[in-house]
Amino acid sequence: MDMKKRIHLELRNRTPSDVKELVLDNCRSNEGKIEGLTDEFEELEFLSTINVGLTTVAHLPKLKKLKKLELSDNRISGGLEVLADKCPNLTHLNLSGNKIKDLSTIEPLKELGSLKSLDLFNCEVTNLNEYRDNVFKLLPQLTYLDGYDKEDKEAPDSDAEVYAEGLDDEDEDEDDEEEYDEDAPPGDEEDEEGEDDEEENEEEEEEDLSGEVGETMNCNKILNMYAALSKMRSVKFLDLNFICIILP
């Protein structure tokens, strides 16, 4: 797959300005050049073009927010001076496995004032005498070269740190859930008691209402019977008390 198609695939219906990380590893570049990548990727912070056959970075667009650039396992032998203009805020640069033979090739990187980590594994330049000391002198802004600082202390694995922080956050969430579960039973009991009280009140209201309805119905029956008897010519006197007694 060529680089243009790969970029289109990686967009996944997003606009270039929405993309912060872009991985184009193992696709094919055209004549060793970066293609399909434009300055519309203005929010891009991480770009990986490992093993895509690059021979130059001259066609890299301006990516002012780019922090980490992976260029390992390509055929780059020079032209790194463009990086200071294209990616002025670069902090991590991986050039491992390229055709870098001498220190003069990486000298332009001193213009990258924010550069903290540089990897040159499997480049011929690493075979030079006092290679590490000379690189740190040439690029004083560097903290790590090939994964180690000047005192040969290994650089922290940023991915591992993020993963560990994620685990800590999960543990805290679980502890919070457990504490909540411990407090849950008393709350449930209170809810149950409240529901019981509501049910009792509803039953009492229903009883009162049924009693009122019954009394109303009895009175209606009495009045209807009184009216019917009053119309009878043979009845001259009506005793309402008697009528109340004979009603069911």
TrEMBL record:
Domain of life: Eukaryota
Bias (Acidic residues): 157-210
Signal peptide: none
InterPro entries found in the cross-reference section: AN32, Leu-rich_rpt, LRR_dom_sf, U2A'_phosphoprotein32A_C
Keyword Cell cycle: no
Gene3D superfamilies tied to this protein: Ribonuclease Inhibitor
SUPFAM superfamilies associated with the record: L domain-like
Keywords annotated in UniProt: Leucine-rich repeat, Nucleus, Repeat
GO biological process: regulation of apoptotic process
Region (Disordered): 149-215
MF (Gene Ontology): histone binding
A Pfam entry, by short name: LRR_9
Residues annotated as domain U2A'/phosphoprotein 32 family A C-terminal: 128-146
Subcellular location: Nucleus
CC per GO annotation: nucleus
Family according to the record: Belongs to the ANP32 family.
Function summary: Multifunctional protein that is involved in the regulation of many processes.
Protein name: Acidic leucine-rich nuclear phosphoprotein 32 family member
Phylogenetic placement of the source organism: Eukaryota, Metazoa, Chordata, Craniata, Vertebrata
